[in-house]
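Lecture notes, part 5. Sequence design as translation. It can be helpful to think of inverse folding as translation between two languages: the language of shapes and the language of residues. The source text, in structure tokens, appears below.
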């Protein structure tokens, strides 16, 4: 017998008719898995990707007497009772979303970055400073207080962007600089009541839906920018500015929906559809309206605001819960299967995480005390596991419970906005296009779990092996709101909605105690990379993510 399967292929009903099985298996249902981890084309002509965890599975030797499969082949098999087979088969056959397009959050198309940022600056600079919104005026008043030194710090961060042709404008050498903090405030004011339209250059630049980030990207990568964007008073002003921007995007009496037709043109529709699912399990290709709740006969596709479009819902049964739980019985076999909390791509998974770590240093170690806002339960998680994944701006942004259980506590942590790791800031490294980060703080995702604005939800899983776990929703860039939809004491079933992000891109973490061992599905496994984190597959929300067993 051999164990710990490293690669999995598509499950098939039976081996070749002339193959013999050694040793024979009696009873239960028997299914074979291709030993090379590559799934063949099925009758519909598309590839499937299985979602198997690394379970302790037996190995059989299949003898094929002739043909292309002649010889002895090693297959991993699952022997299940007839009662459990159907539900487990549905889990193992779940297809991950195979998207060939690079996600914009790691873009190196500097020409596109230049064109879009230049356009943002031009539009923002039109509105005179005398017409500042109250929230923006408060920031200007703060910067004007010389005794605080924040205006000087703001000017320093703008001036610390290297005075070379490369950074006179943008990474391509063309993006016009922000001259001083008065100019910066004017640009913020111009963006405040403008909804993000679909623009090809914005997508290619990795900045779709995040215009504020276009203003701050190079300044936040400076030494003074690191200090400026961590200042509590500055972050209070930024919070109010982003709240005003978010309120505008959510207000049906305002004009934010007027940009929505740009999102329903050929390019964005194709992109959003492919990211949601290029193929269905039966091999047919779906449309945007097949996947999301919308009305394509309406000019705005049934969305009264830009925010309603951003937090759009899947149609019923588009994301069924893999191996669903029927009740809160702790002994229910399905309780060992955890599902994905967000439509996301794995970023990192680390075990033996420490209570306190220097998260601001190179390597970005997870620091549980900081991540959990020094919650009294932090000691329960010391030595445990942190799983982190990120969400693209074009994807589904609601959170769902990975387990069935009881909500023990929820909390909102008002952290920083636009703070990034010094490692990915200036000075530039010749030949390294990721330093400084062209779409910050994308390369600082572990760092921002400790400092960013975030929502924390503690859930006591019905399965005692899992026990208390934690979901953390972390806002990136200009996320102005993380809305929690559950409350303390509420019972949740696996797959129930927990809340949602608003605006921009985002990341999330699952935190587990050291007493539980998690066998992750293939798409959640290494290799991990801070600079190539878009190489993994989008894992659908509610699909099988891990299998829990005692450590």
């Amino acid at each position: 017998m051999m164990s710990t399967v490293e690669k999995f292929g598509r499950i098939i009903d039976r081996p070749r008719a002339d193959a013999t099985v050694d040793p024979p298996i009696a009873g239960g249902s028997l299914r074979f898995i291709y030993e090379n981890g590559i799934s063949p084309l099925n009758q519909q002509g598309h590839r499937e990707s299985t979602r198997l965890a690394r379970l302790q599975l037996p190995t059989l030797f299949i003898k094929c007497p002739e043909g292309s499969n002649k010889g002895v082949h090693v297959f991993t098999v699952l022997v299940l009772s007839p009662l459990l087979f159907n539900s487990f088969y549905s889990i193992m056959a779940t297809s991950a979303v195979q998207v060939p397009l690079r996600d914009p959050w790691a873009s190196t198309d500097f020409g596109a970055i230049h064109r879009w940022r230049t356009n943002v600056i031009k539009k923002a600079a039109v509105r005179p400073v005398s017409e500042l919104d109250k929230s923006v005026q408060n920031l200007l008043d703060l910067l004007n207080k010389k005794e605080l030194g924040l205006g000087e710090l703001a000017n320093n961060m703008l001036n610390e962007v290297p005075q070379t042709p490369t950074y006179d404008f943008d990474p391509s050498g063309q993006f016009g600089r922000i001259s001083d903090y008065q100019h910066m405030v004017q640009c913020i004011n111009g963006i405040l009541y403008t909804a993000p339209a679909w623009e090809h250059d914005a997508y290619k630049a990795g900045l779709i839906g995040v215009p504020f980030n276009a203003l701050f990207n190079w300044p936040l990568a400076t030494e003074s920018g690191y200090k400026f964007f961590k200042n509590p008073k500055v972050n209070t002003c930024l919070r109010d500015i982003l709240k005003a921007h978010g309120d505008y995007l959510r207000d049906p009496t305002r004009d934010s929906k007027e940009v929505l037709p740009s999102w329903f043109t050929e390019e964005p529709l194709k992109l959003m559809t492919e990211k949601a699912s290029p193929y269905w399990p039966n091999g047919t290709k779906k449309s945007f309206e097949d996947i999301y709740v919308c009305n394509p006969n309406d000019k705005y596709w049934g969305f009264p605001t830009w925010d309603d479009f951003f937090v759009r819902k899947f149609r019923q049964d588009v994301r069924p819960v893999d191996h669903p739980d029927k009740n809160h019985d702790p002994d229910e076999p399905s309780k060992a299967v955890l599902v994905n909390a967000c439509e996301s791509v794995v970023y990192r998974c680390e075990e033996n995480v420490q209570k306190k770590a220097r998260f601001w240093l190179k390597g970005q170690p997870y620091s549980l005390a900081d991540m959990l806002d020094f919650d009294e339960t932090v000691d329960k998680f010391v030595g445990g596991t942190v799983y982190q994944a990120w969400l693209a701006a074009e994807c589904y942004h609601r959170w769902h419970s990975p387990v069935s259980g009881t909500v023990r506590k929820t909390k909102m942590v008002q952290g920083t906005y636009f703070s990034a790791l010094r490692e990915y800031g200036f000075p530039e490294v010749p030949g390294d296009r990721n330093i400084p980060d062209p779409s910050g703080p994308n390369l600082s995702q572990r760092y921002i779990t400790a400092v960013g604005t975030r929502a924390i939800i503690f859930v006591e899983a019905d399965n005692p092996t899992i026990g208390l776990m934690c979901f953390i929703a972390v806002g990136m860039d200009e996320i102005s709101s993380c809305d929690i939809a559950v409350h303390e004491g509420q019972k949740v079933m696996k797959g129930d909605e927990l809340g949602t992000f608003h605006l921009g891109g985002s990341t999330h973490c699952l935190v587990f105690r050291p007493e539980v061992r998690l066998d992750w599905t293939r798409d959640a496994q290494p290799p991990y990379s801070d600079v190539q984190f878009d190489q993994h597959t989008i894992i659908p929300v509610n699909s099988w993510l891990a299998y829990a067993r005692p450590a």
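The translated text above is only one of many valid answers, since several sequences can fold into similar shapes. Residues 232-250 form the longest helix (19 residues).
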